[in-house]
Amino acid sequence: MASQPETTCDESSEETIEVTESESALETARQQLYHAAEHLDIDSNIVERLKYPKKVHEVTVPIERDDGTVEVFTGYRAQHDSVRGPFKGGLRYHPDVTRDECVGLGMWMTWKCAVMGLPFGGAKGGIAVNSKELSPTEKERLTRRFAQEVRDVIGPKQDIPAPDMGTDPQTMAWLMDAYSMQEGETIPGVVTGKPPVVGGSEGREEAPGRSVAIITKLACEYYDWELNNTTVAVQGYGSVGANAARLLDNWGATIIAISDVNGAMYEPGGIDTATVPSHDEVPEAVTEYADNTISNEELLTVDVDVLIPAALGNVITKENAEAIDADLIVEGANGPTTSTADSILADRGVAVIPDILANAGGVTVSYFEWLQDINRRAWSLERVNNELEAEMQAAWDAVQSEFEQRDITWRDAAYIVALSRIVEAHKARGLWP
Ligand code: GLU
User: Fold this and answer.
1) Does the CA dihedral 167-171-173-177 come out positive or negative?
2) Pairing mode, if any, of strands 55-64 and 70-81?
3) Which end of the chain, N or C, is more open, meaning fewer C-beta atoms within 10 Å of its C-beta?
């Protein structure tokens, strides 16, 4: 099994930090599925089905480099389950992209959409390429050629990609344009996370970080903690981490540590997050602005109320789970906690709010974008943020109710909400033929 690369849902941060325990996204996703299924009286045939993707498309993507040579890359689109609606999920450009990684991440998208009650299934795609080594024109050629290769299997009613690691709103604009040119009409709903000028939604880029902040606030309320007396450490100061940190800072929390690939800023008295540029504003600037620095590994074990891993996958492992000193972990990245670490944290009584709930603001605003594209009517930022808040509250309430009724972790509670909805839909639709 391939070792687990970063699995951030942060659509712009491309930080890489050495991780020790290797567990592939697919292994983690399957372990989590079995674990949650144990708590539910569900048809084992449906669980068996959900272990596998519906289809995985593998394509070769040849491009002419700027020096005139031709290079061929491998791309994937793993479509996991579509019982509740079209496939939905990001497209990542990263050297470690593999078929299995796309399948595991696609499974998480199925649960994420279901826990949010969105009418989508789950998918994930990617191209095994180091996007930092591509010029903008090479990246554009790669994206347009990939769009052509997967044209038959994507579309607003079939499968709707979005940004992920190494891709951004511009990448989505190229993908939309290439698809639309071939179809002979402008079809903005084929992708989400586009720039607003071509049908993107206001508030989409900030949405994953905003949902992390909203869920952190709701979790603090649940545990009767005043945000004013709550300390927070955020690993990864890209789009997810910086947006979450700044909102929580505005709402009264004290952010004591933030990090990027070079290390972490540590200010026990509190960081003024507005004055530290995020990875999108000035890449890798955190340590340059810091008076006190600690390592990324030390950030994970600082004495803090809330830890938000918002950079990459597999950072909380069996090696460091015992040393985590936070009472609450809110997962900003996709898959930051390995299954072994998850059990250790559960035994130690550390609450972990899972990625499929915490960072689901991204795909939720993607859903709003898709609705706006279909209706050809843009929403105001205020409307997007209000509706996002309402959706996050509804998902939180559903998960909290499972959490309170059963003696389980927050992750299992979120999986139970998601799985129950998916299983009911499978039962209602039945197996064809
Ligand atoms: N890549 C993001 C995620 O992991 C967003 C997916 C989407 O908006 O479709 O949630």
Assistant:
1) negative
2) antiparallel
3) C
List the residue whose alpha carbon is closest to atom 8 of ligand 1.
363
One DSSP character per residue, 145-174 reads HHHHHTGGG-BTTTEEEEE-TT--HHHHHH
Say yes or no to pLDDT of 206 above 80: yes
Beta carbons of 349 and 328 less than 8 angstroms apart: no
Atom of ligand 1 nearest to the CA of 11: 1
Nearest-atom number in ligand 1 for the CA of 363 is 8
CA pair distance 82, 67, nearest whole angstrom = 42
User: Dihedral of CA 315/318/321/323: which sign?
Assistant: negative
pLDDT tens-digit readout, 113-141: 999 999 999 999 999 999 989 999 999 99
Quote the distance between the C-alpha of residue 302 and its chain's center.
Answer: 24
How many A from CA of 114 to the centre of ligand 1? 13
Q: Write down the residue that tokens 């009517």 correspond to.
A: 377
Pocket test of ligand 1: the residue of 366, 371, 391 to mutate, having most ligand atoms within 8 Å of its CB, is 366
Which of 206, 363, 373 should be mutated for ligand 1, with most atoms under 8 A from CB?
A: 363
239 Cα: distance to centroid of ligand 1 (angstroms)? 13
- Give the number of the atom of ligand 1 that is nearest the alpha carbon of residue 105: 4
Tens of pLDDT, residue by residue over 63-77, are 999 999 999 999 999
Amino acid at 176: M
Integer Cα distance of 53 and 204 in angstroms: 27
Got the DSSP string for 74-88? EEEEEEEE-TTSSEE
Which DSSP string corresponds to 362-402?
HHHHHHHHHHHHHHT-PPPHHHHHHHHHHHHHHHHHHHHHH
pTM of the model: 0.94
- What are the structural domains of the chain? 1-22+201-360+368-411 (3.40.50.720), 52-198 (3.40.50.10860)
Contact 118, 359 (CB under 8 A): no
The answer for residues whose C-beta is within 8 angstroms of residue 22's C-beta and 6 or more apart is: 1, 3, 4, 314
Known catalytic residues are 124
Mean per-residue pLDDT, 335-342 = 93
